[in-house]
């Protein structure tokens, strides 16, 4: 009964429930009025000849006219969108009307009771009962009105029949008294179910609203970078595709901006500082765009740009330079001030027929070119780059052919001891003579193999040939073999290489794996594990191209390399650039202090070889000693060097 008692009072503090009550009543009250009119007119017709005309006909007609007006009102306004305040007023008025009409119809029925025979009096009883039941079922959504009409109707009936002196009517009145309680329970049960349904509907609406909100948030998140608030990669490509569909003959100008030197920020200052740099970078780029075009974060430290369609090539170039200049401005982060730089690759497409992926690839290729020169400026995709890119596609296509494995081979460049000139080993250099493309440079096909995931297969093929070559070389000689970034970050490849060594019955101490610092940057933790595994097997590990990557000293310290190879870009300019000479001397001193053997690449003259030896560099390779050789020539070269060393030793004895 608690719900019923609470329902008697209109819940003004619950707007949703008030509106729900109003909507439920709007469909039930017209039915109630129709039943009242029909029943009242039926009673009036049977009493025209026995009761005064004003009582038998005029009173019920007047009451019926009022009911008709109420029916019309509910039909017009019942389906209106209504506020909770107005619903409260309407239901309050409905309770009043229910009480007034019930009293009016009840008083009229009691007044007619004294006229007519027993059958007509029975009809009066029927009218009061039906009126009460109709009010109960039609006003259950408004318990105050339902209880009020039930109480008034049954009270008129009980009082009238109790004083009638008719035992049948007295018994009927007594039954009605007991019938009142089940009716109250029915009203209570119905209202409780109605209130629960309203709450459930409200909860479902809330859940649907929350689901729609989450869908909206997820949709926004799916197209927005959460760190910077910029458009993300998906949004960038979607907009690019839309622009290409809208104006296929006027494709947009696309640019890519990449931060140079960003990874050391994370390594030195932490990822929180790196995130701050990315956020500030986004703010600077947005300010430069001035609300035009699109700037997006594509991932990591790479940003994509869709330039405004009204910008010419010169303006685009200036904006690209502005991006790079903005990156050179210092960043204030907890722990210090950071300076980085950036490079920008731009494609200005000509004609139609472009796809979003093609534009991205061309801008990325232009970015790659400018980053390879390390000048942190802007590079436009040109016809020359188009030819290079087409050649790259041809290479990638040929890498998938069945002939690729048969066309691979190795050449061997001697590594010489600068003290006496004898050969200590060879570096195995990959060669590819394609039936379609001719001789392809390793600088072209090795990166292509990494991009197309062929590198693992290529490594196994070449390493098998290297092991075969090592098996026929004199036992003191060692073999140096290059591993790519994918190789050094792949446990499966490392295990396969160790298995191949075991199968070939080669002493692992005769094998040296060279890795570049760039390879370490891709996944240092995995590379650390793989290098530890290889060193545990007795294999020597050399850091290749030292000085051309980032954080080299950190890597040397953590990975405990056995050798450091001084990059040929320093050695080849040794006698022409004082800075290159100083760098070479510093690396040699570092290696000596750490107890690490240093190897100089790109030695092209006796003077450079002698200077390197004076700096403390022990091993060297380059065209001064020999170009890369086929296997039988390499073995012959090593044997000849041993003969020369022995001859010099005998001459000096």
Keywords:
653 residues, alpha/beta, 8-stranded mixed barrel, 5-stranded mixed sheet, 25 helices, rod-shaped
Care to describe what's here?
It comes from Rhizobium calliandrae. InterPro entries: Cyclic-di-GMP_PDE-like (IPR050706), EAL_dom (IPR001633), EAL_sf (IPR035919), GGDEF_dom (IPR000160), Nucleotide_cyclase (IPR029787), Rev_trsase/Diguanyl_cyclase (IPR043128). The chain crosses the membrane at residues 31-48, 54-73, 94-113, 125-149, 156-184. The structure is a single chain. By secondary structure, this protein is α/β, with parallel strands linked by helices. It is 63% helix and 13% strand. The strands form three sheets. It has an eight-stranded mixed barrel with strand order 8-9-11-12-13-14-15-16, surrounded by five helices. A five-stranded mixed beta sheet has the order 2-3-1-6-7, sandwiched between helices. A two-stranded antiparallel ribbon has the order 4-5. Helix 16 (455-472) runs parallel beside helix 18. The longest helix is centred in the first third of the chain and has 56 residues, at 167-222.
């Amino acid at each position: 009964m608690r719900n019923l008692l609470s329902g008697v009072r209109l819940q003004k503090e619950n707007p949703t429930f008030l509106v729900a009550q109003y909507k439920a009543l709007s469909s039930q009250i017209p039915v109630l009025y129709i039943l009242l009119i029909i029943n009242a007119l039926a009673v009036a017709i049977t009493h025209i000849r026995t009761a005064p005309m004003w009582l038998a006909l005029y009173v019920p007609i007047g009451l019926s006219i009022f009911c008709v007006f109420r029916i019309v009102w509910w039909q017009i306004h019942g389906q209106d969108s209504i506020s909770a305040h107005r619903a409260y007023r309407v239901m309050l008025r409905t309770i009043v009307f229910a009480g007034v009409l019930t009293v009016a119809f009840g008083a009229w029925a009691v007044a007619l009771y004294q006229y007519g025979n027993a059958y007509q009096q029975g009809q009066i009883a029927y009218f009061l009962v039906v009126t009460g039941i109709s009010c109960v079922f039609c006003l259950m959504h408004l318990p105050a009105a339902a209880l009020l009409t039930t109480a008034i109707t049954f009270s008129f009936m009980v009082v009238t029949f109790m004083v009638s002196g008719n035992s049948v009517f007295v018994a009927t009145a007594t039954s009605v008294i007991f019938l009142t309680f089940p009716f109250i329970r029915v009203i209570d049960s119905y209202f409780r179910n109605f209130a629960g349904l309203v709450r459930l509907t409200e909860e479902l609406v809330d859940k649907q609203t929350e689901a729609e909100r989450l869908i909206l948030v997820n949709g926004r998140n799916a197209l927005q970078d959460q760190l910077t608030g910029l458009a993300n990669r998906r949004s960038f490509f979607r907009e690019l595709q839309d622009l290409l569909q809208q104006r296929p003959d006027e494709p947009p100008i696309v640019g890519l901006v990449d931060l140079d030197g960003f990874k050391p920020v994370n390594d030195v200052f932490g990822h929180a500082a790196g995130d701050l740099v990315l956020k500030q970078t986004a703010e600077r780029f947005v300010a430069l765009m001035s609300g035009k075009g699109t700037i997006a974060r594509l991932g990591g430290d790479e940003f994509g740009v869709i330039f405004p369609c009204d910008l010419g090539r010169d303006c685009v170039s200036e904006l690209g330079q502005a991006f790079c200049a903005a990156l050179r401005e210092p960043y204030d982060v907890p722990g210090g001030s950071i300076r980085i730089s950036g490079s920008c690759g731009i494609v200005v497409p000509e004609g139609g027929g472009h796809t979003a992926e093609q534009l991205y690839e061309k801008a990325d290729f232009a970015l790659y070119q400018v980053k390879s020169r390390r000048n942190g400026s802007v590079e436009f995709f040109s016809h020359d780059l188009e030819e290079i890119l087409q050649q790259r596609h041809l290479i990638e296509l040929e890498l998938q052919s069945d002939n690729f494995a048969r066309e691979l081979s190795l050449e061997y460049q001697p590594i010489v001891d600068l003290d006496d000139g004898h050969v200590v080993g060879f570096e195995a250099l990959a060669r590819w003579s394609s039936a379609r493309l001719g001789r392809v440079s390793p600088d072209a096909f090795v990166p292509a193999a990494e991009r197309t995931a062929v590198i693992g297969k290529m490594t196994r093929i070449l390493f098998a040939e290297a092991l075969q070559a090592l098996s026929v070389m004199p036992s003191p000689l060692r073999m140096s073999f290059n591993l790519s970034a994918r190789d050094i970050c792949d446990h499966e490849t490392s295990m396969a290489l160790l298995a191949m060594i075991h199968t070939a019955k080669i002493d692992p101490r005769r094998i040296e794996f060279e890795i570049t610092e760039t390879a370490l940057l891709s996944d240092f933790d995995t590379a650390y594990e793989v290098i530890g595994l290889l060193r545990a097997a007795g294999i020597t590990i050399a850091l290749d191209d030292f000085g051309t990557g980032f954080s080299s000293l950190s890597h040397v310290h953590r990975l405990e390399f056995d050798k450091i190879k001084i990059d040929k870009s320093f050695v080849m300019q040794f006698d022409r650039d004082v800075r290159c000479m100083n760098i070479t001397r510093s690396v040699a001193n570092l290696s000596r202090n750490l107890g690490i053997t240093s190897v100089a690449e790109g030695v092209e003259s006796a003077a450079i070889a002698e200077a390197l030896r004076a700096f403390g560099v022990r091993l060297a390779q380059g065209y001064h000693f020999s170009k890369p050789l086929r296997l039988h020539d390499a073995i012959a070269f090593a044997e000849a060097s041993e003969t020369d060393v022995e001859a010099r030793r005998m001459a000096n004895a």
